[in-house]
Design brief:
- It contains eight helices and 15 strands.
- A hairpin with a 2-residue loop joins strand 5 and strand 6.
- The longest helix is centred in the last third of the chain and has 18 residues, at 225-242.
- 24% of the residues lie in helices and 32% in strands.
- The protein has a single domain (2-272), classed as 4-Layer Sandwich (Metallo-beta-lactamase, Chain A).
- The chain has 274 residues and is α/β, with parallel strands linked by helices.
- A seven-stranded mixed β-sheet has the order 9-10-11-12-13-14-15. A six-stranded mixed β-sheet has the order 1-2-3-4-7-8.
Length: 274
């Protein structure tokens, strides 16, 4: 098993959205923001090379958006994922499987490209995976979350991308198991990668940045905050006990961290590059 961090571009969001009810004097010490309260985030995918199978976790946002939308979201690099794969010695055609933790635009839309008004698969030889619960939720959603889903892109993936729906917690590939978490959005599918020596957990939006590790430091994007806190507490106790390595999808400044459990709850033990 080989693991490679794959860069799919950067974007930005409001610091209040990233940290919810936490006051700026507190969160700004842990995660920087500019004079407009804008924080810098990244889209860090993970490539798991098992030899015959090459599994990409997440796919970024893609190239579907007008200039104004990209400017408002701080998104500039529309071909970053292709370049990053080439830098690591891979091509889009090499990818056999693409695993989506959930179907919000910044996690899966990059699996589809727009060319002259037509959609095409970024990874033409890949089977695409998400949880059944998340797929069903994406079709109904709610007024708060609806803008995060792009039905045209998702339906294209379903019909052209051999989309497979995962029923629940399971081992999806050798050494890669998935668990469902529902606080952020129903059926968020979190990958646990056992390399033989250590277990890496791909954080997606369960814990977007290392600064979000304290239990109550939730993003405002979480649909069910109390559920999210309960899931996070139970998860982080396990992380500390078993010494998992957390791999952050969105943290611009921190790729990986370990966690320890203290009298005051979870806190970062060590930060390091992948």
């Amino acid at each position: 098993m080989q693991l490679h961090a794959i860069h799919a571009g950067n974007f930005s969001c409001d610091g209040g959205a990233l940290f919810g009810v936490i006051p700026k004097p507190l969160w700004s010490k842990a995660y920087p923001a500019d004079e407009n309260n804008v924080t810098k985030l990244t889209m860090r995918c993970l490539l798991v090379d098992l030899g015959e199978r090459k599994i990409l976790i997440e796919a970024g946002v893609g190239n579907h958006y007008p200039e104004k939308v990209r400017q408002n979201n701080g998104h500039e690099e529309t071909d970053a994922i292709e370049k990053s794969l080439v830098e690591k010695g891979y091509s889009a055609e090499d990818i056999t499987d693409v695993l989506f933790t959930h179907l919000h635009w910044d996690h899966c839309n990059g699996a589809v490209l727009s060319e002259n008004g037509q959609l095409k698969l970024q990874f033409p030889n890949a089977t695409h995976w998400c949880s059944k619960q998340q797929w069903e939720h994406s079709t109904i959603s709610n007024i708060r979350e609806r803008a995060a889903y792009y039905p045209e892109i998702l339906n294209f993936l379903k019909t052209e991308g051999n989309m497979q729906l995962v029923e629940g917690d399971c081992e999806l590939f050798p050494g890669i198991s998935v668990r469902m978490f529902g606080g952020h959005t129903p059926g968020q599918m979190i990958p646990f990668i056992n390399s033989g020596e250590r277990t890496y957990v791909y954080m997606a939006d369960l814990i977007p940045t290392a600064a979000n590790i304290p239990i109550v430091w939730l993003a405002a994007y979480d649909l069910y905050p109390v559920t999210a806190m309960e899931e996070k507490e139970n998860f982080l106790k396990e992380v500390a006990e078993k010494n998992y390595i957390l791999f952050f999808e969105h943290d611009f400044y921190t790729e990986c961290a370990t966690v320890e459990w203290t009298e005051k709850g979870a806190r970062v033990k060590e930060k390091f590059r992948f």
